[in-house]
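Objective 1b: paired records.
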Amino acid sequence: MFALSNFIIALAKVIDIVLTVYLWIIVARALISWVNPDPYNKIVIFLYRVTEPVLGPIRRMLPRHSLPIDFSPLIVLLIIIFLQYFLVQTLIQAARSF
């Protein structure tokens, strides 16, 4: 049973790392949007391809007002932080209860 417990803890830590890396990718995308990036730059293309599948649907759900600010990265960051505190911690606590 300890092997399953260790597996779940390792899985939770990997999920935490992936969420942290994606959080920083979202931050980089938000920072790049403040300047006029070269759309043919490989880093810019990578950031757009990795983040747009998540940011696009949230952008469509948010009501569009006359504000020039895109709040979708902030919403995604809050979701990632929630998942880190709820999902990862729940997995770790569940594994320790075995």
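Objective 1b, second protein:
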Amino acid sequence: MPNNHHPPKSPKTVLITGCSSGIGHCVAMGLHARGYRVFATARKQRDVDNLRLQGLNALALDLDDSQSIKNCVSRILAQTDGRLDVLFNNGAYGQPGAVEDLRRDVMRAQLETNLLGVMELTNLVIPVMRQQGYGRIIQNSSLLGLVALPYRGAYNASKYALEGLSDTLRLELRGANIHVILIEPGPVTSRFRENAFGYYQKNIDPEVSAHREIYKRLEQRLTRPGPAAPFTLPPEAVLKKVLYAIESPRPKPRYYVTFPTYLFAVLKRALPHRALDWVLLKVSRNENK
């Protein structure tokens, strides 16, 4: 009989995407240290090997590849007698660039990883959670799923869409004892900027853009050492909220992590659109100085 009311007493099984560094790596190590049965995934085999060397049960998972997603879930379920208690969708990347400079294929690639792969994985896991009568789906969103900032159009779009699908899913799963929870990190120490700069170099040609002067400053920001923004927190701050999302009997629909996410969640509700635009443009000018 499925357990319709309480999580299992034995260590919970957790699947985490994007564990090569940053938030995913920190959460995988933190949950493993607390006795969770963690399945840590990464796209590149060398990262999978590194995770195994650190004592984690690690598997390859490429969110752009349907077969990779299916294979990964099948392998996990074979090891857990068909059980999976928690999915933490963390894997994502940022594609910088002005909206008018984003080619269709570049935009599609951003959505494949940050949205479509995430939802395909989630939809594979939901029937498992329905069968066992319990589950937690935790989505790592972003401050940029709450408010937009210039030159992040592709990433903004992917995270806004993730928020919309997650809110819909939460309503559709009401009564199934499967909780859908959004984590809103804001600025957190990771390799995100370094990776984003690689995608910028690959896909944006500043010399033919109307935004080339701003791109010069954007390049400096993406390659600058040290924290990207004020109020940057270490990834352990996200781990703390993920633990709330897993262990709380009634988890909140959203957990804000850093001061900017708390602040902009309030400002979005309180300010008229033009006033919020003014604040966001000021933030953008300050960070691209």
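The beta strands are 13-16, 37-42, 57-60, 86-89, 135-140, 178-184, 254-256. The chain has one domain: 13-287.
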